[in-house]
Amino acid sequence: MADIVQEDGMKTSKWQREGIFRGTRFFVFAIVLAVVSTSWVTQAFPQSDAINGTVRGRVADASDASIEGATVAIHNSATGISRSVQTGSDGYYVFPNLPLGTYDVVVTKDGFAMVRASKVLLQAGKEAVIDARMPLASVSTTIEVSGGAPVIEPTRVNVGRTIDTKEIENLPLTSRNPYNFILFQPGVSGHPNPELGIPRTINTNGLLDRINYQMDGMVDSQQDRHGLRLFPISDTYVREVQTVSNSYAPEFGMTSGNIFNVITNSGTNDIHGMFEYIHRWVDASARPILLSPTAPKPELKLNDYSTNAGGRVIKDKLFWFGAYEHLERGQPAPVTITAANAAQIGIDPSLLVAGPGLLHGQFVDTRVDWVINTKHSAFVRYNYFRNSFPFNTNVGGLFALDASSDFKDKAHVIGMQVVSALSSNLLNEFRFSWPLRSNSHFPGTLTPAGPAVQIQGTANFNGTTAAGDQFTEKIPNLNENLTWIHGKHSYKWGGSWQENVDLQKADSFTQYIFPSIAAYLSAKSGANPRSYTTVNVSNGGAVPSYHSVFFSLYGQDNWQFTPKLTLVYGLRYDKFVPPPSDPNAPFIYSRNFNSPGANFAPRVGFAYRLTPKTIVRASGGIFYESPATNTWFNTLLNNGNLSSVSLGPTSAGAPAYPTILTSVAPTGTPNDVTSVDPNFRNAYTINTSLQLSRELSSNDSITLGYIHTGARNLEFLSNINLINPIASLADGRPVYSKNVNASTRLFPQFNNILLQQSGARSVYDAGVINYTHRL
Description:
The chain is mainly beta. Among the domains are: 4-37; 53-144, Immunoglobulin-like; 159-264, TonB-dependent receptor, plug domain (Ferric Hydroxamate Uptake Protein, Chain A, domain 1, Beta Complex); 269-474, no CATH class; 509-540 and 644-670, no CATH class. Helices cover 7% and strands 48% of the residues. The chain has an 18-stranded mixed β-sheet that branches. The chain has a 5-stranded mixed β-sheet with strand order 5-4-7-8-11, with no helix packed on it. Strands 12-18-19-16-17 form a 5-stranded mixed β-sheet. A hairpin with a 5-residue loop joins β1 (4-5) and β2 (11-12). The longest helix is centred in the N-terminal third of the chain and has 24 residues, at 14-37.
């Protein structure tokens, strides 16, 4: 079958291209379905804007009677943005999709005194509720609201918060990794990452590493595994971080856990900037606890300089912002191979010093914001990241320096947003981004061609098992949202689409494992070239570029039912179209990938003001989890066509040490297979939350909450090919024969068949206590 080479150099075969076209046709059909269905499906949550904010409120007279026709105007002096609306018969007004910043709100009406709320701070995804009581014209009234709105957020129903600019600027961040901010929110626990990776073992709703990373509401999640960010970022261009761990709006999805949305900085009418330099002296650093007392102190150096600046090109019209960071951080790893063992093996002492790992990262951000006219505004952003990290993997401990591998990583991201006021009560928001990330491991300057050697419990040397891999992923994606303000209702409809284009390759190596130094020396001398216990061989596999398509549709409504009660309700639909399978795969399950379609997720919630300083919130809904693309990659890679093998010294085709095998040849033993269940279903959770918030002061509040999560269709792995156990362990677990035949294997043409299945369940209940102080 002929291949077509794309502009990026990746190859797609005919059956791959047909799968993408099928997914695109389905997406178009789903959009048509959404247009029809949204006539009855409406839903919206406060805090639903991905990168903007909302000002809303009610205008009434001194007797609390609604005032119709009052003019409400807002103005941001930093960017010149101004808007105005008139209240309806119910007295309500809404300004959706506002750029972040500080606003003045002025309410006027003939016969009544002017009401002003100044310094209203608008943050990502938040609603500033500004209610105005208008006295008669004989009375002059000015209302000063500092910090944006009541600290308890009377219309919010979710579990989460926004980490604002003051926190970003003042929280200590020695790791230089803004992703660690994910731990600064209610309902989340985990461990920070001292490097540029993501925090580890993040627990949200009782699930491990279920996180949807975003930047400006656009894709920033690596799709091959759960919980990985697609590209590293620098806090030099982070303005705010919007985090939601439970009960988020239908606009958000692709995860049953956490939404972590980084909002990037932008320019204003005033020129602003900063420069920072951080240095760590090696002499002032402590010695690693495992380091030999006679060994020199490793190079624990740190050099980091960063800068940003922003301003205007045209006042109130065109703004610029840029940021750069250069980070060098020494991360040496002491080698614990004993000198006596190294001498007996013949490892050069120079290979036993601490691995001189040195992270060398660079970050670039540029952004241009344009207020096109009173109805249209836009921004374009470009980000670049590069990291060169020698002695990155298989370093320290029982790994000599010649067993290590180096690492290179780079990413490019372009993103944009256009917001248009189609009328006084109809707004459209469009976002698009194209992120690309590529990284690989390769042998270091001290690493020979091999073969890699492991003496169990003693040393690893003479080559690496952590090189030759490659990961490249690009995810063109778009979001379209339409907001209609109608009386007490704020309707919002929209959808998202992303194509995951992946190219992956596993490590390539030949590794001999010996039980002892004596066995290794026997093979090395030629006395017994098969004194090893195992030789592992991998050729990295031969999976071509594969494509999957994820898209969603939603409708939502925020209904201000009464001045005290906000109702929210709606529906989201997700579709995850897998890549085309290999129709010629040896194992039948691997010839077709199931694509479940009934992924409808209703959500509902409310927020009620018990008193002006006390809010009760409740919400519930269904949240679908996007499958990790490794579910399909592992099936394509390990489909029964051999890509790796483990041989014993008596196996057919077992080599003599130190032979390096350049191909993985059949051994006469049936192959192992990884596949996916033909009835595979998408995982989802049923989340409910109940919260009681109390304002303690104008800048302090406390929230008591309860969270329940019931997870369904969680993925698990099982070996389906083992039958007829020959014995049992003391705890009752079965023992199966190592022989492969019709009496020991369900499919005797294969050995182990690891089937990726769905159907596992979990239940999680948690209490939340959250104290907030607004700076």
